[in-house]
Design brief:
By secondary structure, the chain is α/β, with parallel strands linked by helices. The protein has helices at about 1-20, 35-50, 55-60, 110-120, 135-145, 145-165, 175-190, 210-220; strands spanning about 75-80, 85-95, 100-105, 125, 135, 170-175, 195-200, 205-210, 225, 245-250, 255. The longest helix is centred in the first third of the chain and has 19 residues, at about 1-20.
């Protein structure tokens, strides 16, 4: 029985190699320093807190989610773009000694239409100063072409003025994860900031293969946390017959097998999102329990 299981696993890996047309190297135990499950739980709580409807509770950090792992957080700014229904906040987390930047995802009353739109959304914007890199205009514009960008950058500057040149942790859920990714890249490329780290939860694809390659260069330790039954990380779709013209995820992905962020028994011993497998990662991720 054990030999049969090993044979099936070997056949599956061979099929993946043949489909990708490239050599495949599987690392059995990627560095645990890249992904920290405790940090993931903490950032997931920050990402959940931004959905608090009462902004007074959010600003005073008295909301239902504003305790336990994230107790003692010092809010600096809440940025709200009413016209575009966008929101983010910036503050200081003493437990991880970092600026924390959080972006809100899509509201419940519009998420179905948003997902349906992603099924057909094409790459429609050249990313500035990155040859052949194309991105999703909506996600790019939600961060770059609204009041969110200036508000977030000002919040980071104020936080670092108060607490020193501490690292910057950027996070968000769903569409908030897409905005967080553009923000982290912006902070590194356009503002030249050091110590920028990114971890998102259930974010969609945001650009093509060229963009993913650039992204990895500037944020090599970025993490996308997903779980097995979430459709959003599979959107917009990857089309294998147009590998260079379709959406790709940037690495690295960590898969959680549960429907909430409170359980992270799926540690980073996974099939890594190499440049050969970026389009497959949300479809084929090995988790060892």
């Amino acid at each position: 029985m054990e030999r049969r299981g090993l044979l099936k696993a070997a056949v599956l890996v061979c099929l993946l190699v043949l489909c990708s047309g490239r050599d495949l190297t599987i690392k059995q135990h990627p560095s645990t320093t890249i992904y920290n499950s405790t940090l993931a739980k903490t950032l997931a709580e920050y990402a959940a807190a931004i959905y608090t409807a009462d902004l007074t509770q959010l600003f005073t950090w008295t909301c239902i989610r504003c305790g336990d792992l994230i107790e003692g957080f010092e809010m600096i700014d809440i940025i709200v773009d009413v016209e575009n229904c966008l929101q983010a906040y910036v503050g200081f987390a003493s437990d991880i000694n970092a600026v924390v930047v959080v972006f809100r995802g899509t509201q419940d009353n519009s998420i179905q239409n948003w997902i349906e739109d992603l099924l057909w959304k094409q790459l429609d914007l050249d990313y500035p100063d990155m040859p052949e890199a194309m991105v999703h205009r909506g996600f790019y514009s939600a961060y770059h072409n609204t009041t969110i960008r200036d508000g977030v950058v000002n919040g980071i500057q104020k936080t670092r003025k108060l607490f020193g040149d501490v690292p910057i942790m950027v996070t968000g859920h769903s569409m908030g994860g897409a905005m967080a990714s553009f923000c982290a890249l912006d902070l590194v490329v356009n503002y030249g900031l050091d110590g920028v780290k990114l971890m998102t939860f259930g974010q969609p694809r945001i650009g093509n293969a060229a963009f993913a390659s650039f992204f990895k260069k500037y944020l090599p330790h970025a993490i996308r946390v997903t779980h097995a039954h979430d459709i959003v990380p599979h959107l917009p779709p990857y089309f294998s017959f147009f590998p260079q013209k379709t959406y790709h995820h940037f690495p690295r992905e960590v898969c959680a097998l549960y429907s909430t962020f409170t359980v992270f028994t799926c540690l980073p011993y996974i099939l890594p999102c190499t440049k050969y497998l970026q389009h497959r990662c949300t479809l084929f991720v090995i988790c060892i329990l």
